[in-house]
Amino acid sequence: MEPLAYIKKLPLWQWLLLFIGATFLSFIGYAALIGGYQLTHIVGLPWLTIICAAITLVLYAVLVKVLEEHWPTNLPLRKAVPHTLLGLLIGFIFMVLVVSTIVASDCATLSYIGFSWEEQFDMIMIFLAVAVGEEVICRGVIFRLIDERWNTGIALLVSALFFGVMHIANDNATWWSSLAIAIEAGLLLGAVYKWSGTLWVPIGIHWAWNYTQGNIFGLAVSGGNTNETILATTVNGPEIITGGAFGPEASIITVILGIFLTLVFLRNRYRR
After folding, report:
1. 3-class DSSP state for residue 116?
2. Integer Cα distance of 119 and 231 in angstroms
3. Over residues 53-74, mean pLDDT
4. pLDDT 10s digits, 142-168
5. How far lies 67's CA from each of 11, 18, 143, 261, in Å?
6. Contact 219, 113 (CB under 8 A)
7. Partner residues linked to 224 by β-bridges
8. How far apart, in whole angstroms, are the C-alpha atoms of residue 265 and residue 15?
9. What are the extents of the domains in the chain?
10. Interatomic CA distance for residues 124 and 50, integer angstroms
11. 119, pLDDT greater than 70
12. 120-159 burial string, b = 16+ CB within 10 Å, else e?
C-alpha cells in the first residue's frame, strides 16, 4: 500500500497513537543525538556527531517501517548530496541577506576576528546534530503525518507552531522570538519539505542557517551565544530590526524574508 493511502486509511485513534508515539520516539532519538555529541568533548572525535546523526536517520527510517509498514520516501539516498547542498546554499544565502540588510540599515557593524579549522569543524558538527534532530521531529514526523492525513495548510500551521514552542525555553527567548521562528523558519522549512519531497533540503537549510549566523557572523543562535566565530557583529539598533539578545531570528527582517520564501516555494510546489 502507498504511504499516503496507508495514513488516510488508519482510524483516527490509531493515527493519533501513531502521531504521539512517533513524535515521542523522535524526541528520544534527538536527545540521544545531542547526548552523543557531548561525548566528543571526552573522546575528542567530532566525527562521532556525524555517526550519531546517521544513526538518527537510520532509526527514523526503521521507525517508519515498523509503525507505518513502509520505508520512508523522504530520505532517498540518491538525493542526499545534491539536496543537502541545495539546502546549505539556501540557508547560507538567507542568513547573508538578513545580516546584510541589518548592516545596511545602519543597525550593525562587522569586524574580522580570525579563523580556526578545528573550532569551525566542531561547530559545524554541532549544528549538523541540531538540524538532523529537529527536522526529523518537525518535518519528518509532525508535518508529514498531518499532511498525509489532512492537508498541507494544517501541517504547516501545526509543525511551525510546534517548532516555535520548541525554542521558548532558550536563553533570551520571548513569545515574540518563538512566534518569529515559527513564521520565518517553521513555515519556510515545511514549505521547502513539501516542495522538495525530501528531508535533505530542510536539513541543509537548518544546518547552514544556524552555522552562518552563529559562527560566521558571531550572532546569537536562537538566543544562545557562540565563542568560535569568524566575524564579530556589533548590533546598535532597535531590537525589532536586530533581534536583540536572541539574535536575528527575532528580527522583523528575518520574518519578512522567511514569509516571502515560504510563498515562493509553495507557489512553485503547486504550479508543478
Report:
1. coil
2. 14
3. 86
4. 999 999 888 899 999 999 999 999 889
5. 14, 7, 16, 33
6. no
7. 221
8. 28
9. 79-271
10. 10
11. yes
12. bebbbbbbbbbbbbbbbbbbbbbbbbbbbbeebeebbebb
